Amino acid sequence: MSSLVESAKKAFTSATATEKVADLQRDIQTPQARDHLTTDHGVKVSDTDNWLKVIGTGPGKYNGPMLLEDQIGREKIHRFDHERIPERVVHARGAAAHGYFKVYDDRASKYSYAPVLTDSLRTTPVFVRFSTVQGPRGSADTARDVRGFAVKFYTEEGNWDIVGNDIPVFFIQDAIKFPDFVHAVKPEPQNEVPTGQSAHNNFWDFVGLQPESAHMVMWVMSDRGIPRSFRMMQGFGVNTYTLLNDRGERHFVKFHFIPELGVHSLLWDEALKISGQDPDFHRKDLNEAIENGAYPRWRFAIQTIPEDREHDFDFDILDATKLWPEELVPLEEIGELVLNRVVDEFFTETEQVAFCTSHVVPGIGFSDDPLLQGRNFSYFDTQITRLGVNFQELPINRPICPVLNHNRDGKARHRIVKSSINYWPNRKNIGMPVPAEKGGYIEYAQRLEGIKERARGDKFQEHFSHAQLFFNSLAPYEKIHLANAISFELSHCEDRVVYNSYIDVLNNIDFSLAKSVAGKVGADVPSQSGRRNHGKKGKGLSQTDFMPKEPTILSRRIAILVADGFNEVEMQAVRVALTSAKAVCYIIGPRRGHIHPSQDTGSGVSADHHFEGQRSTLFDAIYIPSGAEHVKALAKNGRVIHWLRETFGHCKPIAAVGEAVDFLRDVVQLPKVDLFAPGGRNDQVVSSYGVVSTGRYSAGSSIIADIPKFEA
Ligand code: HDE
Predict the structure, then answer these.
(1) Is 526 exposed, middle or buried (0-12, 13-18, 19+ CB in 10 A)?
(2) What is the mean pLDDT of the chain?
(3) SS (H, E, C) 324-345
């Protein structure tokens, strides 16, 4: 065996259960206290604060000119000048984490011989990057947008990438439309407005003229466009891939990730406010959950269709603007994805990770989905622009298995291959390396016949049936959110042609939806339905279909509002109960610092934030303990009253005890104050995510919780 193969094998076998993390250790530097600064060529640097310059020697020292000869100063500035690489042309803003993937058993072996999908003894390391699509790297996390959900599986047979989204369909059917779509949704060319939004003429102009977008637009305008957390989104491979089994049979397949915590969204008002209050809300949320041990988890499922049933459906199963209704093609859950480690350095991991839909492993293949085939070309190409031709050698991208071939050179090549042979076949024919006899990637022998033509298949011409299916399946309040979202966006389009054109599209989906949006945005209100709504509904389309099996407040953020004179015994009891249900509590007070309790109830707490330093939008629920003095102080604070009214308006739970209940009724004047019945349950904190039993505690007061309900 050549030393090259040996060294690659060694690197591979030394890998542990978290092979990729171990592999990355080779490149991780952890500076220790008092380590020396050096230049990039390794020479120690003793002064990094002063450029080499002429110091005048007249009476007193004075500054003369700086000298270009300062190679240390020059290196520092030159390196800085070249710190930026091109941001991703779409999905520029993202956050990522490490984790693992495991299948439950070998049930998928009837579809595929890929061990990553069938070997339950394996733990496959993964790196997952979530993103928004439209905005630049510095845009806000909570924009209304599609979210990217890209998973790199570091399998023993090579890297496999599912470059998916949180929505199961796409805007266009054919890759050749992608540049038009992206130009239309991105900021307009004359003024680079708007940032991180699709609420502008060009986007709605394009989708109005491109009815194949209708289905996807419905998803983005629904609550799916404003997720509460990356951890509470579904992930979809979107395109149709194929699986090949060891009998040589092929199935078409769609990939799904289903979040353990359920699918939850922000309200639009929250999303808008958080964009300003904490533009990093989602990336912080991801790290906070992992650091608190609330590891994000998804069940992994597949939908499969045997090859000979390809044409059995009234839609084309290779059309990415259509989903495969679960009633027709059930989901099979085969494994789980868990994220358990935050990144060490954003640039080298999250920014440099390079996903390619063309990265598949033996047993997994492509289909003739015309969007997927274009993507297979585009991603590799874009990585060469972003990172250079050797992008797969970067630590975050390199596989955990041996990589050996005759590809050579190019910018920033790292690997040193010690061999006189860089081609195949070679005269020595001793193999360094040779084509694999077993385990190589084998293309499925697919029979093809047809006419070369710039055209699309017949079933690709129908665009509204699945848009109707999605709309019909939403809960009443989800429909209202959707109509409001489209109305918001169209009211940002000044051109009447644009918003009238979109009303025509909506009228092909649902007459009442078209009328209600048209009425709001000043468009021509249609007098009759453009197309009959078929009235069918589907499973797994409304977010309400994804409530977790057991109600949970795991990783939910709870603000405890206190001022001097709060009842600490009671507050601590509630806090322990919430924390043991794995919620994350923050104490918010009039100042960040010590807050004094009421007499004899404790020694006080240190507030994490002051009332002005945070906003209610950043929390899932509020709890106010009892305590006469503290409630009196809260009542004098306009910001506190705003916190509570806003929380109530956003349909979030508020728990109050003793004097705090009167405060909510009399001072905050919550409209449904009769729900705060003093003397109510004292053993439970109720949240709209479920009921968490906290057990009895000694303070003797009652915890009263309200669940404000959204009413249409
Ligand atoms: Fe992408 N897409 N895309 N896309 N996409 C990119 O690749 C492209 C599409 C998706 O976290 C780019 O590395 C074409 C569908 C994600 O790094 C680029 C077409 C879906 C990410 C590109 C599509 C996606 C990208 C830009 C139509 C959901 C971020 C930077 C044929 C299934 C991955 C990059 C990450 C990124 C091209 C359509 C998801 C230019 C040509 C459909 C999650 O290559």
Answers:
(1) middle
(2) 90
(3) CCCCCCCCEEEEEEEEEEECCC
pTM: 0.92
Residue nearest to atom 42 of ligand 1 (CA): 170
- Mean pLDDT score, 199-216: 98
CA gap 676, 692 in Å, rounded:
18
Asked if residue 317 lies in contact with residue 252, where contact means CB atoms within 8 angstroms, the answer is yes
Verify whether residue 36 is a known catalytic residue.
Answer: no
Which tokens go with 597? 């309790």
Query: Of all atoms in ligand 1, which is nearest to the CA of residue 379?
Result: 44
Angle at 232 between CA 229 and CA 233, to 5 degrees: 100
DSSP 583-626: -EEEEEESSSSEEPBSTTS-S-EE-SEETTTS-GGG-SEEEE--
How many helices (H) and strands (E) would you count in the chain? 18, 22
For 137, 349, 386, the CA distances from 85, given in Å and listed in that order, are 11, 14, 6
Q: From CA 375, how far away is CA 164, in angstroms rounded? A: 12
Torsion of CA 631, 637, 643, 649, to 10 degrees: 90
Residue owning tokens 């919430």: 578
Helix (H) or strand (E) holding 179: helix 178-185
Evaluate whether 133 touches 185 at the Cβ level (below 8 Å). yes
Q: What is the pLDDT of residue 679?
A: 33
Span 433-476, pLDDT tens digits: 888 889 999 999 999 999 999 999 999 999 999 999 999 999 99
**Count of alpha carbons within 13 Å of 79, Cβ hemisphere only?**
9
Q: Quick check: 238 pLDDT over 90?
A: yes
Residues with CB under 6 A from ligand 1: 88-91, 94, 129, 131, 148, 150, 163-165, 170, 175, 178, 238-239, 320, 355, 371, 374-375, 378-379, 382
Q: Is the distance from CB of 17 to CB of 24 less than 8 angstroms?
A: no
Residue 151's SS3 state is strand
Query: Is 91 among the residues known to form the active site?
Result: yes
Out of 85, 90, 183, give the residue to mutate to test ligand 1, the one with the largest number of ligand atoms within 8 Å of its CB. 90
More confident residue, 98 or 686: 98
Decide if pLDDT at 688 tops 60. no
Atom of ligand 1 nearest to the CA of 383: 13
Q: Using an 8 Å Cβ cutoff, are 156 and 9 in contact?
A: no
Domains of the chain: 1-29+400-424 (no CATH), 39-83 (no CATH), 94-387 (2.40.180.10), 473-545 (1.20.1370.20), 557-706 (3.40.50.880)
Closest listed residue to residue 182, CA positions, set 370, 316, 369, 378 = 378
Task: Compute the average pLDDT of residues 39-57.
Answer: 94
- The CA-based diameter of the chain, rounded to the nearest angstrom, is 94
For the chain, what is the radius of gyration of the CA atoms?
29
Match 């994490």 to its residue by tokens: 608
Q: Choose which residue among 170, 183, 379, 396 to substitute to test ligand 1 binding: the one with the highest number of ligand atoms within 8 A of its C-beta.
A: 379
By the 10 Å C-beta count (0-12 exposed, 13-18 middle, 19+ buried), 443 is classed as: exposed
- The catalytically annotated residue of 98, 159, 165, 630 is 165
Sign of the C-alpha dihedral computed for residues 674, 675, 676 and 678 taken in this order: positive
Q: Which two tokens stand for residue 466?
A: 């699945």
Query: What tokens appear for 58 in the block?
Result: 């007249």
SS3 content of the chain, % helix, strand, coil (to 5): 30, 20, 50
